[in-house]
Amino acid sequence: MSWDPTGDRLAYFVRREKTRTLIIENVLTRKVENKIEIKTVDDPESPDFSPDGKKVVFAGLQGAIGDLFILDLETQQVTNITKDSFADSGPTWSPDGKFIVYVARVSGNEKLFKIDPATGTKTQLTFGTHDDAAAQFVDQDTLVFSSTATDPNQPIDPDVARNGNIYNIWTLNLKNGELRQYTDAVGGNVSPIVLHQGDNKSQIAFVSYYKGDYQLHTLDRRDPIITASTSDFGSPGPIIDFQAPLTHTLIAANKRKKGAFEKLFLDGRPPVNVGITSGGNVFGGSAVTFSDVLGDKQFNLYAQSISQYRTLSFSYINLSRRFNYAVQAYSQTLFFYGQLQNVFYDPVYSGFIDRNLAQATSTIQGGSVFGIYPLNRYRRVELSGGLLQYRQSFNDPTLQATSDQYQQSVFGMNLFQNATFMPLGVSFVEETTIFREFGPLSGRTMRLSYETAPGFAGLKSRQTLDGDVRKYARIGSTGLLAMRLRGLRSWGDVPDFIYFGGNSELRGYDYLQFIGSHTAFANMELRFPFIEAMLTPLGVLGGVRGVFFAGMGGSYFSGQPSSAGQCGTNFANVTPQGTVTGSTTRVGSFTWLKRGTTLECPITYSPTTGLPELGKPVPVSGLRLVDSRASYGVGLETFMLGFPVHFDWAWRTLLNRDWEDVLYAADGGSAKFRRPRFALWIGYDF
């Protein structure tokens, strides 16, 4: 980076796709005044304003050779001013703008040179077999720089020779060639700059390395350790071409093309994961990867087990071209809790079916192909296809039979997927998110996908649209506003569905509480640093971050009845003998929001029979969430043993207390529903 002569503008390079762009930013207004894309020079770096502020000199590569270039800010013309076979870098203008001082690698060592940009005349300023780094002007006649030079008039101590190449701070007088050394550190001092303090006074600031730490120091240039002359280190001599420290002889008879899968090797030590879930289940897993010498062809074997459920996967990945592809075969069995009354089973049984009884399994077996084509650095298209067999059911056979009967009567089909599909999918992915150790900091992540499974020869059909968009707006140094919108819609013979709820998806509700083939939820979180670091007797521990959050979402299946219309005539009647007569299906379709006034009937359950009972109709007015849910709250996050640990306090709401009293009449009404819920969970934020 470089300041212009007025101190109002800053010049720096940023990467854009495969090229770099010079940014001229006004630090007073915080506005970017100019963006100049450098297309003719590779990897431009180290910009420096000319004293008149009209030009910028920088280093870069042209034809794989490092040279210096001058950019005219008015015409945006780039001119190569060195045009030699040496590696040139670190340019800086003289205060009068008549010449430029830079570093050139000559005969194996970095040396200071100066060049007159008008005539192209070059002059070597430092000599010897040591290395000198980029310089800065203290005044018109004095340079300050870091160098590995030692006293030329003294023999080198064996310890110094053994350690070697330690940078220290030196100055050079351009008029008489006098060199002065001001530091003698064992760790090294680099990157000196001049701090102007007025009244023609200045200090030298530099970075010092010692025992694994980098620190900033300043010096006043009062008492030099060593005074020498540039001639004490030698004078310009013949240029010695680069000589490789090791040479090889190629035997043409042994030359052949390596086989595609020849000499595969184990790619790192296979990880072993073992633990216990919050539900008390033991889980474990490992992955083994074999790769070729370039790492662009891989064979992966993955195994995982949680409780008695196992996942096995074998895949081949080819990364040798821009279009990456993979072929895989797998068998995956996971468990979930199908405790969604009025969807998986008749709500009459809700008082008898607990979470453990509602445990179900989902098994997917088959093979697939997957391809990725990057459009640019931040966006890509993904293609997929395969042949997969799904098997889903409750672990309890009686509940499964009851569930099948109820779903057929309400939805006209079974929601559990027990069929064979041939899914074909395409996705667009964008990823500009910048991450820090605590998670996302700024940028955007987006994934939009469409999948279709044609129905023929006994295969089931379905179509699925899925979108997930996340935006991170940085606030200050490490604060941010995080926003997420997720939506899914699936239809066909056996529609797909997803789960959400709990953790960072919709805090305050049970983990994966919501399920459906039509799903949408939104989150907004203000995340900020609370304590940057904690000094404890055990050392410095990770900081504490705070969060204010709010979320809303809902999920349902096609044909699923609504929670609205509690007084509908289709609700079951209960005889004095406790016999249920009539349909237990609630009327109405899924409803997100409702306004106005309606009559709603609270539902309670008989303490003797456990069967539902209707209360007197109650008028409910105002805005309210009907089948969707919302929550808000506060939380804290810290890191323990490298894992992000969250402590959340969440309040659930339907935006209307009267409606909550009706809907949760059997469970304490609004007062209990709105009680704060505390959750401790481990994982990264969205």
- Figure out the total of helices: 4
Structural class by SSE content: mainly beta
Largest sheet: 19 strands, antiparallel
Q: How many DSSP E strands?
A: 49
- Approximate shape: elongated
What is Rg? 35 Å
Low-confidence stretches are 569-587
Report how far the terminal alpha carbons are from each other: 34 Å
Helix % is under 10%
Q: What integer is the average pLDDT?
A: 86
Oligomer type: single chain
Strand content: over 45%
Keywords:
five-stranded antiparallel sheet; 5% helix; elongated; mainly beta; 49 strands
Structure report:
This protein has 686 residues and is mostly beta strands. It is built from 4 helices and 49 strands. The strands form 11 sheets. It has a 19-stranded antiparallel sheet that branches. A hairpin with a 2-residue loop joins strand 18 (201-210) and strand 19 (213-219). It is elongated. The model is unreliable at 569-587 (pLDDT under 50).
Describe the structure in brief.
The protein is built from 4 helices and 49 strands. The protein is mainly beta and 686 residues long. It is elongated.
Set down the secondary structure blueprint.
Layout: E1 2-3, E2 9-16, E3 19-26, E4 31-38, E5 42-49, E6 55-62, E7 65-72, E8 78-80, E9 87-93, E10 100-106, E11 109-115, E12 122-124, E13 136-139, E14 142-147, H1 158-163, E15 168-173, E16 178-181, E17 189-198, E18 201-210, E19 213-219, E20 226-229, E21 265-266, E22 272-276, E23 282-291, E24 297-306, E25 309-318, E26 324-337, E27 359-374, E28 379-394, H2 397-411, E29 419-421, E30 424-431, E31 434-436, E32 439-453, E33 462-475, E34 479-492, E35 498-500, E36 514-516, E37 518-536, E38 539-556, E39 573-574, E40 580-581, E41 593-594, E42 598-600, E43 603-605, E44 612-614, E45 618-620, E46 624-625, E47 629-640, E48 643-653, H3 657-663, H4 669-673, E49 677-682
Antiparallel strand pairs: 1-2, 2-3, 3-4, 5-6, 6-7, 7-8, 9-10, 10-11, 11-12, 13-14, 14-15, 15-16, 16-20, 17-18, 18-19, 21-23, 22-23, 23-24, 24-25, 25-26, 26-27, 27-28, 28-29, 28-30, 30-32, 31-32, 32-33, 33-34, 34-37, 35-36, 37-38, 38-47, 39-40, 41-46, 42-45, 43-44, 47-48, 48-49
